[in-house]
């Protein structure tokens, strides 16, 4: 069981190129690994086949107990790395979840695996839009499959393509939004520190997103930056 947990963890650590996904915000694999480790801890506690660090130091542990304890330590380290990566994907504190996972590995995996992505309102709007588009496309594909217009293999392939397409589009727009908000924040800080409260008049392009502006624009029509 521990070998399977390790394989699942390593597979998910490697496959994390996309920060956001339209398929879902929770991590079922992390929850499953956490539950499996809870059962493993319970079993090893009842049968007494896992050594503590104190037993190892005092040479009171058998060889089998030592290796079970060592392998579990490896699992803890790998789970900690996994949690740090997942916490980053969920916009949550990586340091906090790394520490918590190393100390309380199974429980931390279950809790973090059930967490949603933490998003600012601007990001939540973009996420909801792409998730809705993906959901509508999956409904259409399901209806086509139920009408026998698609085979089972074609249906699965088109679902995978739809998820990849919308996830890629979502991440591209999220990155653009991050850049816009970062530039907007930098502009607001500069305006507050250097502008001394004086309204800044912009008549050509938005300093945050580069949108072309008219002389009468008080707010950027693209990113919402307050210009006056």
Give a brief description.
The chain has 228 residues and is mainly alpha-helical. It has eight helices and no strands. It has three domains: 2-113, no CATH class; 121-194; 198-228, no CATH class.
Number of domains: 3
What is the H-and-E element order?
Answer: HHHHHHHH
What is the percentage of strand-forming residues?
Answer: under 5%
Which shape, going by the Cα principal axes? flat
- How many E-type strands? 0
For the sheet with most strands, the description reads: none
Rg estimate, integer Å: 25 Å
How far apart, in Å, are the first and last alpha carbons? 62 Å
Look at the helices and sheets and give the structural class. Answer: mainly alpha
Number of helices: 8
Please give the share of residues in helix: 55-70%
Mean of pLDDT = 75
Spans of at least 5 consecutive residues with low confidence: 13-17, 199-203
Protein name: Zinc-ribbon domain-containing protein
Keywords: Membrane, Transmembrane, Transmembrane helix
Transmembrane segments: 29-47, 67-88, 94-112
Keyword list:
228 residues, mainly alpha
How does the SSE layout of this entry go?
Blueprint: H1 2-14, H2 28-47, H3 53-57, H4 63-89, H5 94-103, H6 105-113, H7 121-146, H8 152-194
Helix pairs in contact: 1-2, 1-4, 2-6, 4-5, 4-6, 5-6, 7-8
Organism: Williamwhitmania taraxaci
Protein name: Zinc-ribbon domain-containing protein
Keywords: Membrane, Transmembrane, Transmembrane helix
Description:
The protein is mostly helical. The protein folds into three domains: 2-113, no CATH class; 121-194; 198-228, no CATH class. 67% of the residues lie in helices and 0% in strands. It has helices at residues 2-14, 28-47, 53-57, 63-89, 94-103, 105-113, 121-146, 152-194.
């Amino acid at each position: 069981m521990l070998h399977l947990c390790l394989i699942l963890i390593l597979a998910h650590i490697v496959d994390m190129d996309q920060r956001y996904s339209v398929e879902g915000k929770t991590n079922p694999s992390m929850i499953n690994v956490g539950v499996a480790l809870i059962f493993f801890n319970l079993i090893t506690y009842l049968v007494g086949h896992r050594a503590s660090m104190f037993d190892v130091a005092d040479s009171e542990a058998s060889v089998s107990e030592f290796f079970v304890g060592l392998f579990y330590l490896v699992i803890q380290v790998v789970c900690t790395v996994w949690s740090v990566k997942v916490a980053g994907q969920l916009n949550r504190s990586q340091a906090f979840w790394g520490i918590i996972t190393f100390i309380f590995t199974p429980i931390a995996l279950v809790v973090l695996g059930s967490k949603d992505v933490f998003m600012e309102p601007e990001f939540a709007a973009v996420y909801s839009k792409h998730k809705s588009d993906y959901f509508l496309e999956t409904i259409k594909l399901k209806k086509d499959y139920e009408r026998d217009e698609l085979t089972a293999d074609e249906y699965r392939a088109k679902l995978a393509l739809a998820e990849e397409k919308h996830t890629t589009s979502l991440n591209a727009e999220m990155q653009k939004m991050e850049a816009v908000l970062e530039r907007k924040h930098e502009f607001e800080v500069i305006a507050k520190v250097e502008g001394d409260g004086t309204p800044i008049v912009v008549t050509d392009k938005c300093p945050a997103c580069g949108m072309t502006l008219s002389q009468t624009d008080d707010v950027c029509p693209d990113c919402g930056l307050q210009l006056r």
